[in-house]
Every structure is written in structure tokens, then in C-alpha cells.
Amino acid sequence: ELFRQNHFFNSLLLLPYSVLLAIDGFFIADKIDFDLASPMFSLTFSWLEGNSLGQLIFGIIFLFIQAVLINRLVISHRMSRVITLIPGLAYLLLMNALPETRGLHQVMMANFLAILFLLNCFPILRLYNTEKNIFNMGFWAAMSGFYFPSYFMLIILVLIAMSILRSLSLKEIGQAVTGIVTAFILVGT
After folding, report:
1. Which of 177, 169, 188, 95 is nearest to 141 (CA)?
2. Once rounded to an integer, what is the mean pLDDT over residues 114-126?
3. What pTM was estimated for this model as a whole?
């Protein structure tokens, strides 16, 4: 019932809820196998290798931030008739349902970047100066693929979203491709 109302304090209650969902991780030490992770994930989070408590705490805070961003996305674009915090709550519940993704996981980082992609996707419907958003769509879609290779499919979704939300022009396709290429150049260097 608390999460049916959109109040700042109720949004903060998502953090203790996230801790409660991951409470078993404090008792069962489960380490991420960085050998099986993508190279980008291993490079970025190698400082947490071997520290299961640090991975769990970082994962809990990271999931909380993602839940808040999902709620912001749903509320600001009026995707629901009733303004609630249930979408972020459901995301927390689903991400903690699988024991393989407890703590910090490469899918979690890819999901975060996919949420950033969506946050830049929907404003292109109403804005006139959308160059920044279209560039960011391509950039975040490509970056999410570096953390979890299956997310490279978001690059196709960039073009689909642009064709649905706007009239597809060569200039805007070039802006999205520039964002994608920029991600490849930054990761390559």
C-alpha cells in the first residue's frame, strides 16, 4: 500500500525493500565469477573481485537506483493511468527472484544502460532539438552491449524507436550511428 502513492519518502523505502529482498546474500557468500563475465564488466568492476559483501552492497544500491529510474520513466511519460511506485517495486522483485543475478551482475549493468537508453528514447517524441537524445540513444544501446553481448540488439531498437516516434531522416540516423560509433571508439581505446 505504501508504494501506491508517489511520495519522496515512499521512493526512499525502495532501498530497505531492496535490502530485504537480498538479505540472504549476507549469509550466503556468493562471489561473481569474473572469468565468465564480459571483458568490459571485468575491466570496470575488477576492484570488487573477491569481495562478496562489497558486491552485494553495491548491487543493492545499484538496483535501488534502477528502480527509481524506472519509476521516473513511467511517471514522467504517463505510461500508467495511476501514478504509483509499483513498476520499480516489480523490477526489484524480479531482479532478486533469480539467485544467479544476486549481488553485482553484468546483466544488472546492462539493464542500467538500457534504462538510460529508454530515458533518452521517449523525449524524442515531443522535443524539437533531439540531437542530444538521439546520440545518447545510440551510445547507451552500444554500451549496454559491451556489458552483456545480447544487448547489442538494442542497436536495432534505436532505429525502430526512431521510426515509430519520429519520421526517420538520414540526419537522425547519422546522429544515432555517431553515438554507436563513439561507444565503440571509447571502449576500443
Report:
1. 177
2. 90
3. 0.87
